[in-house]
């Protein structure tokens, strides 16, 4: 392993980390702006032109706030909780292919993916299931009944929806025959996006993604009307900030996963023509821009849904998860399998 | 019970049909409604920079008027204070000295004229009571402040700007 490889990966990791933090930061701003526009308001517009410095002001406020740790809280776990939430939110970006490899003039090929492990989809799943631990540990360590209830809700919600999510992915894997995210993306060259082959699977996946990221209408773990602030009731200062931040990073990562698995990642129609026109350095970057456009579209969709659909009741959540999504997902797997068998036979 | 009006409407709760139970068409409708608001004009007015136009009978902050020569109209008769239902107005009268003839219109004037803006209910009775047309509630919205004492407006804030004499 040569040193340039290490440097290259390190730079890539730093860039992705920075980008995901900045996107999470500006997601808070975008959320407030989108919420405002959907409600015929203006949103924050005082800090800087159009209020674009608002996230900085919010961050500064978070840092300046008094740090309160409840007397009866488990101090160690209380501090681990937000850190774990943040960590698990960030490491999901490692396997996502951000663009096709760049070929430099010296003939060196730089892949725009931190690591291409052959079980990338499983890795994403593992990370997503870990993300509930931050919520659970934080909720439990707070020694507050509302936080605990919220943590229990988060755990049961994640378990319920992971099943349906996994089943919807199985149908996708039947189509792609691989678990490597890079190969899945490369199969979707041009217009052959997986959403065209797996529309029902995509629908199931996006519903489960909403549930996994604790976004409305599945934001039961932090529903104010019942649980005060949910699992972060007792948190203050930047620890609270970490929880809120982790939610936005989760949203970014799941948008990236959805764009990669179902919407062709960095592929777009006419990319071969662009490659011949723009050359092997610029064209992959255009692909990356396309991927980010898709991600932003998904993030906007997340926010759009939040201001449209009211929160589920707990029994409705469980009903939807176990009695609706899982049977549909199983049926989707069976139908996909049969169709593939028939296609391969003839 | 016998209906009292003809507006009574009997509600029938039908079981949901398949499309309704799927929720998806309803979700689509809801999303269409919210996104239509994305392109509507916002109702917000950026207040300190942009101010809404008030109606012609809007009553705002008081101003003590001057006459056409720039002399203060108020003669400290106290009718405004008497008429004030909130007891917001206090004044101390003083006699005009000969050299102050250009400042005050009559021989008596208000040396101190104070309105407590926290007490004032902007009813406009002082305006109606004034026989000299000296007080009008034609100003802007009274601004907010931090201390109670800062809401007691004296003549420095109430009296109109003096006329510029050429």
From TrEMBL, chain B:
<dbReference type="InterPro" id="IPR017896">
    <property type="entry name" value="4Fe4S_Fe-S-bd"/>
</dbReference>
<keyword id="KW-0411">Iron-sulfur</keyword>
<dbReference type="GO" id="GO:0051539">
    <property type="term" value="F:4 iron, 4 sulfur cluster binding"/>
</dbReference>
<keyword id="KW-0830">Ubiquinone</keyword>
<dbReference type="InterPro" id="IPR017900">
    <property type="entry name" value="4Fe4S_Fe_S_CS"/>
</dbReference>
<protein>
    <recommendedName>
        <fullName>NADH-quinone oxidoreductase subunit I</fullName>
        <ecNumber>7.1.1.-</ecNumber>
    </recommendedName>
</protein>
<keyword id="KW-0520">NAD</keyword>
<comment type="function">
    <text>NDH-1 shuttles electrons from NADH, via FMN and iron-sulfur (Fe-S) centers, to quinones in the respiratory chain. The immediate electron acceptor for the enzyme in this species is believed to be ubiquinone. Couples the redox reaction to proton translocation (for every two electrons transferred, four hydrogen ions are translocated across the cytoplasmic membrane), and thus conserves the redox energy in a proton gradient.</text>
</comment>
<feature type="binding site">
    <location>
        <position position="126"/>
    </location>
    <ligand>
        <name>[4Fe-4S] cluster 2</name>
    </ligand>
</feature>
<keyword id="KW-1278">Translocase</keyword>
<comment type="subunit">
    <text>NDH-1 is composed of 14 different subunits. Subunits NuoA, H, J, K, L, M, N constitute the membrane sector of the complex.</text>
</comment>
<feature type="binding site">
    <location>
        <position position="74"/>
    </location>
    <ligand>
        <name>[4Fe-4S] cluster 1</name>
    </ligand>
</feature>
<keyword id="KW-0874">Quinone</keyword>
<feature type="binding site">
    <location>
        <position position="130"/>
    </location>
    <ligand>
        <name>[4Fe-4S] cluster 1</name>
    </ligand>
</feature>
<feature type="binding site">
    <location>
        <position position="84"/>
    </location>
    <ligand>
        <name>[4Fe-4S] cluster 2</name>
    </ligand>
</feature>
<keyword id="KW-0479">Metal-binding</keyword>
<keyword id="KW-0408">Iron</keyword>
<feature type="binding site">
    <location>
        <position position="120"/>
    </location>
    <ligand>
        <name>[4Fe-4S] cluster 2</name>
    </ligand>
</feature>
<keyword id="KW-0677">Repeat</keyword>
<feature type="domain" description="4Fe-4S ferredoxin-type">
    <location>
        <begin position="64"/>
        <end position="94"/>
    </location>
</feature>
<comment type="similarity">
    <text>Belongs to the complex I 23 kDa subunit family.</text>
</comment>
<feature type="binding site">
    <location>
        <position position="77"/>
    </location>
    <ligand>
        <name>[4Fe-4S] cluster 1</name>
    </ligand>
</feature>
<dbReference type="InterPro" id="IPR010226">
    <property type="entry name" value="NADH_quinone_OxRdtase_chainI"/>
</dbReference>
<dbReference type="GO" id="GO:0050136">
    <property type="term" value="F:NADH dehydrogenase (quinone) (non-electrogenic) activity"/>
</dbReference>
<feature type="domain" description="4Fe-4S ferredoxin-type">
    <location>
        <begin position="111"/>
        <end position="140"/>
    </location>
</feature>
<keyword id="KW-0472">Membrane</keyword>
<keyword id="KW-0004">4Fe-4S</keyword>
<dbReference type="GO" id="GO:0005506">
    <property type="term" value="F:iron ion binding"/>
</dbReference>
<dbReference type="GO" id="GO:0048038">
    <property type="term" value="F:quinone binding"/>
</dbReference>
<dbReference type="GO" id="GO:0009060">
    <property type="term" value="P:aerobic respiration"/>
</dbReference>
<dbReference type="Pfam" id="PF12838">
    <property type="entry name" value="Fer4_7"/>
</dbReference>
<keyword id="KW-1003">Cell membrane</keyword>
<feature type="binding site">
    <location>
        <position position="123"/>
    </location>
    <ligand>
        <name>[4Fe-4S] cluster 2</name>
    </ligand>
</feature>
<dbReference type="GO" id="GO:0005886">
    <property type="term" value="C:plasma membrane"/>
</dbReference>
<feature type="binding site">
    <location>
        <position position="80"/>
    </location>
    <ligand>
        <name>[4Fe-4S] cluster 1</name>
    </ligand>
</feature>
């Amino acid at each position: 392993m040569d040193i340039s490889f290490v440097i290259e990966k390190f730079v890539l990791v730093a860039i992705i980390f920075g980008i995901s933090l900045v996107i999470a930061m500006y997601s808070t701003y975008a959320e407030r702006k989108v919420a405002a526009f959907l409600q015929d308001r203006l949103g924050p517009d005082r800090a800087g032109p159009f209020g674009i410095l608002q996230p900085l002001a919010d961050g500064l406020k978070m840092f300046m706030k008094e740090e309160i740790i409840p007397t009866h809280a488990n101090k160690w776990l209380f501090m681990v909780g937000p850190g774990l939430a943040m960590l698990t939110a960030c490491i999901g970006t490692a396997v996502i292919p951000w663009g096709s490899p760049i070929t430099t003039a010296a003939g060196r090929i730089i892949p725009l993916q931190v690591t291409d492990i052959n079980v990338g989809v499983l890795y994403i799943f593992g990370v997503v299931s870990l993300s509930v631990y931050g919520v659970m540990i934080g909720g439990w360590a707070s020694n507050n009944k509302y936080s605990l209830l919220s943590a229990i809700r988060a755990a049961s919600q994640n378990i319920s929806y992971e099943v349906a999510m996994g089943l919807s992915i199985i149908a996708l894997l039947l189509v792609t025959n691989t678990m490597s995210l890079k190969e899945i993306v490369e199969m979707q060259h041009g217009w052959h996006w997986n959403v065209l082959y797996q529309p029902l699977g995509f629908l199931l996946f996006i519903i489960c993604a909403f549930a996994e990221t604790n976004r409305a209408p599945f934001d039961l773990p932090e529903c104010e009307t019942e649980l005060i602030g949910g699992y972060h009731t007792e948190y203050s200062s930047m620890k609270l900030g970490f929880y809120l931040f982790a939610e936005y990073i989760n949203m970014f990562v799941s948008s990236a996963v959805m764009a990669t698995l179902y919407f062709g990642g960095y592929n777009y129609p006419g990319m071969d023509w662009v490659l011949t026109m723009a050359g092997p350095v610029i064209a992959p970057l255009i692909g990356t821009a396309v991927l980010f456009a898709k991600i932003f579209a998904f993030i906007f969709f997340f926010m759009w849904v939040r201001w449209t659909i009211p929160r589920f009741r707990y029994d409705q959540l469980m009903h939807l998860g176990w009695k609706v999504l899982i049977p549909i997902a199983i049926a989707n797997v069976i139908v996909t399998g049969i169709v593939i068998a028939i296609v391969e036979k003839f | 019970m016998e209906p009292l009006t003809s507006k009574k409407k009997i509600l029938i709760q039908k079981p949901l049909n398949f499309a309704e139970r799927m929720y998806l068409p309803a979700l689509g409708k809801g999303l269409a409604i919210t996104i239509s608001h994305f392109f509507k004009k916002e109702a917000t007015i950026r207040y300190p920079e942009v101010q809404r136009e008030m109606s012609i009978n809007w009553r705002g902050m008081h101003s003590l008027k001057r006459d056409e020569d720039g002399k203060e109209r108020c003669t400290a008769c106290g009718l405004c204070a008497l008429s004030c239902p909130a007891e917001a107005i206090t004044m101390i009268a003083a006699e005009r000295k000969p050299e102050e003839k250009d400042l005050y219109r009559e021989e008596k004037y208000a040396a101190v004229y104070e309105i407590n803006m926290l007490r004032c209910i902007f009813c406009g009775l002082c305006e109606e009571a004034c026989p000299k047309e000296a007080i009008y509630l034609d100003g802007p919205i009274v601004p907010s402040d931090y201390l109670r004492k800062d809401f007691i407006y004296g003549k420095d804030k109430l009296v109109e700007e003096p006329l510029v004499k050429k």
